[in-house]
């Protein structure tokens, strides 16, 4: 393993690997290979493909595992499974190629660059050394019920997808779960988008199983049948092994602890993990039942498929996302405050308001003026011209002590003075 690390460490930023140029290397990713951030060289850039991606490089002794992994990834098309890209410069889709490195020939493939962190970093205990995380089942960090349930649902969907294509992962663990960085993530839900990576020891159930890479798996996340695969009590390994590993990951997200401390406890049929609610009373009973069923030592007692476990997880009530609700409320309040400030303190908003109020005549302000000027109001001089008041010589004169009605804003007709009839 040290020879492998030393050989891969000789790859430096700026080195060319086929159509790519190395930007930097990532540490601690993959036991049989190493992952680098790379950019597509200008002459090989294609529309619709990213310019920055992740390049996985393996030593010659592990090239069979890397080419098999590239073949598995080329079958998948799911948002919760890492995406592989065809290598540019070929007339047909090619997903893995050989390249001459400083240490010799090595195989590589290109996949999407996931820079949102890993699940391992979220639940690992921090040590005093800066930037160093150490796995610990005693004082690990547990996630919220919302995040734990949301990530477990996504991983169950990913396993369901790969199982439908006759592939079992056999290495489901927090270190192989990365997060995809999304735009406007501040306004999105609190559950990140989880992506299942690393299919280096995966198997195709339709062909002869690969059992020579058992030592590369992390023992704490193995299923009992996977741990006893080479022993006397050998059991077949199938999709239910991934269900068991997902149960361990879910248990750790909820409690911050591993259900089994070592492989001996994993294969012991009498060892039952502590129920999660005893470590965290807020865990609902229905969620605990799902976890304990996934961790059953006998594969028959587990969920018989990832699809069955996904259905059980999706039937559970989803906790309310208070953090996302508060963030969206805060963003809405900030937007309203910015609009008010823009309209109230000079600038374009003030110009718009000034044009609306001053330059543009308001129709409601003109209406009373137009009515007053266009419609002549009756005047006192118009009153004697009324025929009923002056035409009859026998009419009784109107008393001068009573003033004639003045003009009013309405067209109310003046009352007629009754004309007394002559005595016969």
Dominant shape: flat
Q: Approximately how much helix is present in the residues? A: 25-40%
- What Rg is obtained from the alpha carbons, in whole angstroms? 40 Å
CATH topology of the largest domain: Transferase(Phosphotransferase), domain 1
> Between the first and last Cα atoms, what is the distance in angstroms?
142 Å
Provide a short characterization of the protein structure.
This protein is of the alpha+beta class and about 425 residues long. The chain is about 35% helix and about 15% strand. It has 14 helices and 13 strands.
Question: What attributes does this structure have?
Answer:
424 residues; alpha+beta; Phosphorylase Kinase, domain 1; Transferase(Phosphotransferase), domain 1; 2 domains; 7-stranded antiparallel β-sheet; two-stranded antiparallel ribbon; 14 helices; 34% helix; 13% strand; flat
Describe the protein.
By secondary structure, the protein is of the alpha+beta class. The chain folds into two domains: 110 residues, Phosphorylase Kinase, domain 1 (2-Layer Sandwich), CATH 3.30.200.20; 200 residues, Transferase(Phosphotransferase), domain 1, CATH 1.10.510. Helix content is 34%, strand content 13%. The protein has 14 helices and 13 strands. Strands 1, 2, 3, 4, 5, 6 and 7 form a seven-stranded antiparallel sheet that branches. It has a two-stranded antiparallel sheet with strand order 8-9. Strands 10-13 form a two-stranded antiparallel ribbon. Strand 6 and strand 7 form a beta hairpin. About 13% of the residues have low confidence.
